[in-house]
Specification:
The complex is a heterodimer of chains A (about 575) and B (about 150). With about 575 residues, chain A is α+β, with helices and mostly antiparallel strands. Chain A is about 65% helix and about 15% strand. In chain A, α3 crosses α7, α9 runs parallel beside α12 and α11 packs antiparallel against α12. Chain B is about 40% helix and about 15% strand. A 5-stranded parallel sheet of chain B has the order 2-1-3-4-5, with helices on both faces. Chain B is globular and about 40 Å long. Classes of the chains: A alpha+beta (about 575), B alpha/beta (about 150).
Chain lengths: ~575, ~150
C-alpha cells in the first residue's frame, strides 16, 4: 500500500521541480538569445583578459626560467671550476709544498678567493650577473671583503644545509635592479677538507667531505631579460591587436549581415503575419459562412425530410391509387380487348357491307338503269308509232313519263358518283387551283355560249389535295354558281382565297339566287334542294358530294348567302 | 349469211327490242344474230352446241356485247374470244348500262375495241346505234378473215 501511495505522490512534486527547472533554463536561454551581442562582447573581453593575463604570466615565468637556467649554469660552472681548481691546482701544489694563500699579489689564490674574483670580473664584463660565495664560517683571507650574510643568504644556507641537492632562489632588489638571487650548496671536497682543517686561521677544523661549507649565490638581473622579452611581447600584442581588429571587423560584418537578415526576416515575418491574419480573417469568415450554410443545409435537410415524409405519404396514397388504377386499367384493358374484338368483328362486318355496297352500286349501275331505258324507249316508240291514236294530253303524259325516267337516271348517276367518291382513295399533290377553275368556267361557257358571265379568278392559288376530287368539288360549286346566276342581269362569279373569321379559306362567290340562311344546315344534305326543280333543275346531290370530298380531305365547308343576294361557299383543306 | 352481220349479245328482251328498233330506224339492214347469254354467244362464235356445224368462215362484222349476262358474263366471253385465233381480231363493242370504272378498265384490258354506255334517253341511244353502225359496218376495215399464222 505504501508503495502505491509513494507512486501516487512522488511523481507530482518531482515533475513540478523538473518543470520549474526547465522553465528557468528556458528563461535563461531566452535572455541569452535576446542579448546575444552584449554577451558576445563580454565573452570576447573576457577572452582577451584571460589571454593577456596568461601571456603576462607566461612572460614572467619565461623570464624567471631563463634567469634560473642562466643562474644555475653560472653556479654550476663556478662550483665546477672551484672544485677543478682545488683538486687539480691547489691540492697538487699543496703536495709540492706550495700553499694557497689569501693574498692577492704573487700567491696561489685560494679557490674561494678565485671564485670571488671571477664573480667580480663577471659584473664588470657582463650585464650585471654576479657570483658570490658566502658562509657561516668565512675564510679569514677572503672574509674581510665579504660583509655579513643578509637575510636571503641565511635562509638559503639553512635550506641548503638541510637539502644540499636542491637550489634556493628568490627575486629581490639588488643595487636598485630587479634581480634573481639563486643559491646552491657549496660542499666540502677531499682537497678542501684537508686545507680547511689544517690551516691554523681556519675558523672550523672539523670539516667532513660532503658537508655544506657555504652557498654559491648568483645574482641575475632581470631587467635586461625583460627588455628583450618585452620587444617580443610587443610584437605579439601588435599581432593580437591586428587579430582583434580583424575579428571585430568580421564580427561587425556578421552582425550587420545578421541585422539585415533579421530585418528581412522580420519584414517577412510581418508580411507572413499579416497574411496569416488576413487568411485567419478569411477563415473566420469562411467558418461563419460554413456555419450559415450548415444551418441552411440543416434546415433544407429538415425540410427535405419533411417533404420526403409527405411525399412518402403521398406516394403511399398514390400507390394505393395506382393499384386501384392498375386494376381499373386491367379491367379497361379487358374491356378494350373485348371492344377490340368487337371492333375487328365490326370492321369485318363493315368490310363485308362495303363489299355489299360495292356489289349493290354495281348492280344499281347495271340493273336500275335498264328498266328506265325500257320506259323511255317504249314511250318514245308509242309516241312515234301510235301518234295518230294519241291526243295532246296522251302525248304530254308520255313525254312526262320520259322526262321522269331521264331524271331518275340522273339521280342514279349522281348517287353512284357520290358512292364512288366516298370509296375512292385520296392521292394528294400540289396543284394549281386557279388553272382548274379557269378550265371549268371555260367548259361552262362553251356549253352555254350565249350567256355573258363576269368571271374573276385569283391567280396562282395552289392547294395540296387530290386534284381529281378537288376538280369535282370545283365543278359542282362553279356549276351551281353558273346555274343560279341564270336569271341575274349582270351575273358575276368569283374564285379566290382569303381570311374568314381568322381562318384561311378558298371561296366561290356568285351574285345569283342565293338562299335563305334559315335552311343553310340543309344545304349539304343528300337530295336536299332549296329551289324548285322547274326554276333551277338539279338532283340535290352536288353539295352533298362536295361536302363529302372536303370532309375526306380533313377540311371544312360552309356557306353564306341571302335570297336574291348571291351565295358564297368557303372551304378549307 | 355471206353479208356483213351483227352479233348482238343481250339478255334483256327490252334492250334487244330497243336495239333492233334503233338499228331499223337508222336503216341498218344487216342481219342481226342475237345471243341471249354468254354461252350462246360462245357456241355461235366457235360453232359448238346449238350452232355446231355452222359455217365458220362467216364471222360477225361487229359484236355488240352486254356485260351483265346469265351463265357466262360479257367480260369472260371477251376473254375467250381474244384467246382464240379465229376470233381474236373480231371488233367487239361493249354496249352496257354501267359506266363503272372497273368495267371500262377490264374491258379494254381484255381487248375491247370500244366501250359505249347505253343512254336512258332513247333518242340518244338511237343516235349512238347509228354512229356505231356507220363506223363499224361502213368505215371500219376488218382484219382478214383467215389470219395467216
Amino acid at each position: 500500500m505504501s508503495e502505491v501511495t509513494l507512486d501516487k505522490e512522488v511523481p507530482l512534486p518531482s515533475s513540478s521541480i523538473w518543470g520549474k527547472c526547465a522553465a528557468r533554463i528556458l528563461g535563461v536561454l531566452e535572455i541569452l538569445h535576446n542579448q546575444t551581442i552584449p554577451i558576445l562582447t563580454v565573452l570576447f573581453g573576457l577572452c582577451l583578459l584571460i589571454i593577456y593575463t596568461h601571456i603576462t604570466q607566461l612572460k614572467a615565468q619565461m623570464v624567471e626560467t631563463i634567469a634560473l637556467r642562466g643562474a644555475d649554469t653560472y653556479a654550476r660552472e663556478s662550483s665546477d671550476m672551484r672544485e677543478w681548481y682545488a683538486i687539480e691546482a691547489v691540492q697538487r701544489l699543496h703536495v709540492l709544498g706550495i700553499k694557497a694563500s689569501g693574498e692577492t699579489d704573487g700567491a696561489v689564490p685560494l679557490p674561494t678567493l678565485l671564485s670571488s674574483n671571477l664573480g667580480a670580473q663577471l659584473i664588470s664584463g657582463r650585464s650585471g650577473e654576479r657570483v658570490r660565495l658566502s658562509s657561516q664560517y668565512p675564510f679569514p683571507q677572503a672574509g674581510d671583503s665579504e660583509p655579513q650574510m643578509d637575510k636571503f643568504q641565511r635562509e638559503a644556507l639553512d635550506f641548503l644545509t638541510q637539502q644540499p641537492e636542491q637550489s634556493f632562489y628568490q627575486v629581490d632588489q639588488v643595487d636598485g635592479r630587479q634581480s634573481l638571487r639563486f643559491a646552491t650548496a657549496s660542499r666540502m671536497q677531499e682537497g678542501c677538507v684537508t686545507c680547511h682543517n689544517e690551516k691554523a686561521e681556519s675558523p672550523k677544523r672539523d670539516w667532513q667531505v660532503g658537508q655544506v661549507g657555504g652557498i654559491v649565490e648568483v645574482v641575475y638581473p632581470l631587467d635586461s631579460l625583460e627588455k628583450i622579452t618585452r620587444m617580443n611581447w610587443l610584437d605579439s600584442y601588435g599581432m593580437m591587436g591586428v587579430l582583434v581588429v580583424l575579428w571585430l571587423g568580421g564580427f561587425g560584418l556578421i552582425v550587420l549581415k545578421l541585422r539585415r537578415v533579421s530585418g528581412e526576416l522580420e519584414s517577412r515575418v510581418e508580411q507572413r503575419t499579416a497574411d496569416l491574419n488576413e487568411s485567419h480573417r478569411q477563415l473566420e469568415l469562411e467558418i461563419h459562412e460554413r456555419k450559415v450554410a450548415e444551418n441552411t443545409i440543416r434546415q433544407a435537410r429538415d425540410n427535405l425530410e419533411k417533404r420526403v415524409q409527405e411525399r412518402t405519404a403521398k406516394l403511399a396514397s398514390s400507390n394505393a391509387e395506382l393499384i386501384r388504377e392498375v386494376a381499373e386499367r386491367k379491367r379497361a384493358e379487358n374491356d378494350t380487348r373485348s371492344l377490340n374484338s368487337q371492333l375487328v368483328q365490326r370492321s369485318a362486318q363493315l368490310e363485308a357491307s362495303n363489299k355489299e355496297l360495292e356489289a349493290f352500286s354495281y348492280s344499281v349501275s347495271h340493273d336500275l338503269r335498264a328498266p328506265l331505258r325500257g320506259i323511255d324507249g317504249f314511250s318514245q316508240a308509242v309516241l312515234e308509232d301510235y301518234d295518230d291514236k294519241l291526243d295532246d294530253s296522251g302525248r304530254s303524259y308520255l313525254q312526262r313519263v320520259r322526262a321522269a325516267s331521264q331524271r331518275m337516271s340522273q339521280l342514279i348517276d349522281a348517287m353512284l358518283n357520290l358512292a364512288r367518291l366516298t370509296r375512292a382513295d385520296i392521292h394528294t399533290q400540289d396543284f394549281d387551283m386557279s388553272t382548274i377553275v379557269a378550265e371549268i368556267l371555260d367548259d361552262l361557257q362553251k356549253m352555254e355560249p350565249e350567256r355573258e358571265v363576269t368571271c374573276v379568278v385569283a391567280h396562282d392559288l395552289y392547294a395540296t389535295a387530290d386534284p381529281k376530287l378537288l376538280r369535282a368539288v370545283l365543278e359542282n360549286l362553279l356549276g351551281n354558281a353558273w346555274k343560279f346566276t341564270r336569271l341575274q342581269e349582270a351575273p358575276c362569279i368569283e374564285f379566290g382565297h382569303g381570311q374568314y373569321k381568322g381562318q384561311a379559306a378558298f371561296f366561290v362567290k356568285d351574285n345569283g339566287a342565293g338562299f335563305d340562311m334559315t335552311y343553310s344546315h340543309k344545304l349539304f344534305g343528300t337530295f336536299q334542294r332549296l329551289h324548285a326543280y322547274t326554276e333551277y333543275p338539279g338532283v340535290g346531290v352536288g353539295l352533298a358530294t362536295v361536302h363529302r370530298i372536303i370532309q375526306r380531305h380533313g377540311g371544312q365547308i360552309w356557306a353564306e348567302g341571302a335570297v336574291d343576294e348571291g351565295a358564297t361557299f368557303h372551304f378549307t383543306l | 349469211m355471206a353479208q356483213k352481220h351483227i352479233l348482238l349479245v343481250e339478255d334483256h328482251p327490252d334492250d334487244e327490242e330497243l336495239t333492233m328498233r334503233a338499228l331499223k330506224k337508222n336503216n341498218i339492214m344487216n342481219e342481226v344474230v342475237v345471243a341471249r347469254d354468254g354461252v350462246q354467244a360462245l357456241e355461235y362464235l366457235f360453232g359448238t352446241g346449238a350452232h355446231a356445224g355452222r359455217d365458220m368462215d362467216v364471222m360477225p362484222q361487229i359484236i355488240l356485247l352486254d356485260l351483265k349476262l346469265p351463265k357466262i358474263d360479257g367480260l369472260e366471253v371477251l376473254r375467250r374470244l381474244r384467246a382464240d385465233e379465229r376470233t381474236k381480231f373480231l371488233p367487239v363493242v361493249v354496249l352496257t348500262s354501267s359506266k363503272e370504272e372497273q368495267d371500262i378498265v377490264k374491258s379494254y384490258q381484255l381487248g375491247a375495241n370500244s366501250y359505249v354506255r347505253k343512254p336512258v334517253d332513247f333518242q340518244e341511244f338511237s343516235q349512238a346505234v347509228q354512229n356505231l353502225g356507220l363506223y363499224w359496218l361502213i368505215l371500219n376495215e376488218q382484219a382478214p378473215e383467215r389470219v395467216p399464222v
